[in-house]
Amino acid sequence: MEDTVLYGHALVLKELGFDRPTEFYFTKEDAPKSMVWRKRAEVLNHNGDAGLPPKVSAPTFYEAAKWLREVKNWSVRVNYSRENREWFYDILNMETGDYDDGGDCYFQSYEDAFSAGVSAILSKLTTN
Predict the structure, then answer these.
(1) Residues in the chain with pLDDT < 50?
(2) What number of other Cβ atoms are within 10 A of residue 27's Cβ?
(3) How far apart are CA 80 and CA 3, in angstroms?
(4) How far apart are CA 105 and CA 94, in angstroms?
(5) What is the pLDDT of residue 90?
(6) For 8, what's the count of Cα atoms within 13 Å in the CB-facing half-sphere?
(7) For residue 127, what pLDDT is reported?
């Protein structure tokens, strides 16, 4: 899973304290107004970079899910429905046992279901 999280996800992760080194980061440097570039760099914690313009670490969905599991105690699981022939996710708060099956959302690929599960966890963490 090489896809990085979206810029909005990266901002939420930074707000939640994501501090792992990443290969990619987002920046508005040399970007047209209201645009953001994703750039590759040395593997660093770009969220701690005080440079101007500011950078935001852009972890892969896997790196984000691993951090959410290890630090925030939230897990995402992806399964396949043979009946629907599509993928789905569920998420678990490992501290409280709260479980969310993702509703009736199905996805064409494992990666899409996985990234939707990570997004769902970030949503729960920002609304609590």
Answers:
(1) 1
(2) 20
(3) 21
(4) 22
(5) 95
(6) 6
(7) 86
**Burial environment of residue 45 by CB neighbours within 10 A (0 to 12, 13 to 18, 19 or more):** middle
* Secondary structure class of 31 (helix, strand, coil): coil
Q: Which amino acid is at 2?
A: E
Q: What are 3-24's pLDDT values in tens digits?
A: 889 889 999 999 999 999 888 8
What is the pLDDT, as a whole number, of residue 98?
92
Kindly report the pTM of this predicted structure: 0.84
Torsion of CA 28, 119, 113, 4, to 10 degrees: 30
Buried b vs exposed e over 69-88: b needs ≥16 C-beta within 10 Å?
eeebebbbebeeeeeeeebb
Length reported for the chain: 128
Residue pair 96/73 in contact (Cβ under 8 Å)? The answer is no
